[in-house]
Amino acid sequence: MKKLKQTKRLMFGLVAAGCALGTAFVPTARAVVSDEDFNALKALVQQMNGQLQSLKQTNQLNQATIQQLQSKLVETQRTAVEAQQNSIAATQSQPAPRVPLDEATVNHNFQILGDAEIQYTKADKQNGSFVFADFAPIFLYRGGDRILFEAGFDFGLQNNAPNGGGYLTTINLSFAQLDYVINDYLTFCAGDLVLPLGTYSERTAGWLNKFPDDPLAVDLVPGSGVGAEFRGAIPLGDSGKLLNYAVYGVNGPGSSDGTGNAGALDLGGNVGITSDGVNSNLHQNLVGGARVALFLPFKPHYDLEFGLSGQSGEWDNVGSHLWSAGVVDAALHLGPNFEAKGEYILSRFGSDDLGQVRQQGWFVQAGYKLAGLNLEMPFINNVELVGRYDSLRDGFGTTTYRNSAGFIYYITSALLFEGDYEFIHSSDPSQPNSQLIFQMSYGF
């Protein structure tokens, strides 16, 4: 194209020069220009015209070649896209080959989590002391795409019984369960299960609790039970709403001395083997329970959960009395800095000596992280203020109310220094009127 333009400019220049010369020197040209010179100039013009036509033909040929190449490129791209789509469809229609797990992969699927605490308490009418040191590891193992195993232990160190020497070390199995993921909405669990009676036992106990001690009412229901469970969640639309559910059957509460007296009720001792080695449930039938909850997210860090749960079945050895409990739980998050939650617990059980025993209690607690004030003060931004109110009616004539106010200082996201001051009002004269608790907690 560049050569064609240069040739055009040269030809037009020569023609223009010839015309100018012809115009300026017409009378003289007739006398000077010979036929031989004229013919030579004519031949030169014809030669240049021929070159111009040749360049035009070459340009047309190049344009046709370019169009053909473009057409072939479009066809090649279409063929490549179709081949890619066919490859993806073939891959999705065939299951991925299962690769045997090597030792490195197996070790990678094993983890140890948990928490550790040390606590100091000063109550009125009592000496201040470090009450206990606690280490609670949780072992997690993933045996493939569907099999999970988890077990939690609790190692504790505290003072021995009154008039006893030294200290007491306790080792307890908190839970141990095998999970099989059936599908995205259903999981089967078996073993020593963390029971979904409310949410405190599953989500708040230990290092996750915003207070150094537990709410009074959580002792009215068992934290674990030996049996089997189906649980999962069903999405409600595309906005993140969920319907959580759990249905289970476990051995349930038992009798600590084999009688049906109210004081013999043991919420966590019935694991199916008696002290004389007999493999037997302490009563004839299993205990059934369930929980259903609605989770409603509004936007990131803003959500509400409301749940109902219950459990009912025999507890005494001869099967003549029932134990049942119901729990209402709720949790609210308003941004990353505010959280409120609470539970109401009601339990009933029959007995030989006291008849029907009714127990109830509830708690509500809230926390606010001062980082939400945007004060740009490092020490202040690491503080969370917490408050709690809880009560308990034990069914044996004792009523207790407690108000707690405290703080959490986040040294790191996993290392916490907690403190709270509690005002206690109880009909039991042995209970202190107030106490101050400090605790150092570490989650790993």
Fill in the keyword field for this structure.
single chain; two-stranded antiparallel sheet; 6 helices; disordered N terminus
Question: What is the gist of this entry?
Answer:
The protein is α+β, with helices and mostly antiparallel strands and 444 residues long. The protein has six helices and 18 strands.
The main pleated sheet reads as:
16 strands, antiparallel, barrel
Written as H for each helix and E for each strand, in order along the chain, the element string is HHHHEEEEEHEEEEEEEEEHEEEE
Q: Quickly count the domains.
A: 2
With strands numbered from the N-terminus, the spatial order across the biggest sheet is 1-2-3-4-5-6-7-10-11-12-13-14-15-16-17-18
Estimated structural class: alpha+beta
β-strand percent reads over 45%
- Beta strands, count: 18
Residue runs with pLDDT of under 50 for 5 or more positions = 1-32, 90-104
Mean of the pLDDT scores? 83
As a percent range, the share of helical residues equals 10-25%
| Computed CA radius of gyration, to the nearest angstrom | 43 Å
List the total number of helices: 6
For the termini, the CA-CA separation is 74 Å
Label the overall shape: elongated
